[in-house]
Amino acid sequence: MMRVLAFAAAVVLVLLPALADNYVLRVATTMLMYSALALGWNFIGGFAGYPSFATAAFFGLGAYASGVLQTMGVPMPAAWALGGAIVALFAAALAEVLREITNSATDLTGGGMGLNLPVLSLDVTSQARLFYYAMFVAAAAALATTAFVAHDRLGFGLRCIQQNEDAAIMLGINTLRYKVVAFVLSAVFPGVCGGIYASWVNYIDPTDVYDVLLSVKPIVMVLLGGVGTVMGGVYGAILFLLMEELVWRNLLQFHAGLLGIIVVCLVLFLPNGLRGAGWAKPWWRRRTGEAAP
């Protein structure tokens, strides 16, 4: 049943640009971006158990790397891919203070004045469809990678690290290598999304793409959907976007405070996400065939 529903959802997502107006496409594109960000964070925070607040740094670096490459004449899809690769290398080498670096490199990034990207010679509807499909590919790649990791020895090793890192070392697991791989995976998808986002909005500045909420939101999404699960990031992104569109647009002054309250409540009362709630377990088992404990 779940496979049928998943296939139906995939068909709807593929056909959506031909059926929906630009507003729906904007919301759907945002949902796909959120899904990719949440799935990316889940590699390090969910599987390995090392909560990371670096998503905004990866997203911003990917946005600026892709933006600068495009201003140099690199084709847009290639700039997105190279932006993700640069972020992955950056995560492997590890660094910090990206906002200050971006602000200081005025000749390259525009500093606090921001960076204008080349404008596409496409109508509004065509652009909406283009960036929807770009985010769709990014989210699908993140989901496919998550499913692969969950069923691979990498996922097993990361779960061992999460449970007891010392015991994992005794089992012969190279914990350093596994954590580096998880950290790189948590960086590459936000990096690609940042590049696509930069092209989507045509203008970026450090305040926008290095927004600290971009580090908090993926955590909330994964906590909502289920930490360390394959579909948790997707479910959480959908729920989060619904709350954002229906409620928080009218409560902008309390947005950050509400996020903090939600994080605390989820950690204290729903550590396994909504699927782990007592009222949800019977429904989840009926849908997935999961056996009762």
Q: Shape from CA axes?
A: globular
Strand content: under 5%
Quaternary state of this entry equals single chain
Beginning-to-end CA distance, first to last residue? 22 Å
Number of domains: 1
Tally of extended strands?
2
Largest sheet: 2 strands, antiparallel
If helices are DSSP runs of H or I spanning 4 or more residues, what is the number of helices? 15
Structural class: mainly alpha
Give the low-pLDDT segments. Answer: 283-293
Fraction of residues in helix: over 70%
Overall mean pLDDT score? 83
From N to C, what is the helix and strand string?
HHHHHHEHHHHEHHHHH
**Rg from alpha-carbon coordinates:** 19 Å
**What strand line-up does the widest sheet have?**
1-2
Question: How does this structure look, described?
Answer:
There is one protein chain. The chain has 293 residues and is an all-alpha fold. It has one domain. The chain contains 15 helices and two strands. The chain has helices at 2-19, 22-47, 55-71, 76-93, 98-104, 106-109, 124-150, 153-163, 165-170, 175-201, 206-209, 213-225, 232-246, 255-269, 281-288, and strands spanning 115-116, 203-204. The chain has a two-stranded antiparallel ribbon. The longest helix is centred in the middle third of the chain and has 27 residues, at 124-150. The radius of gyration is 19 Å and the shape is globular.
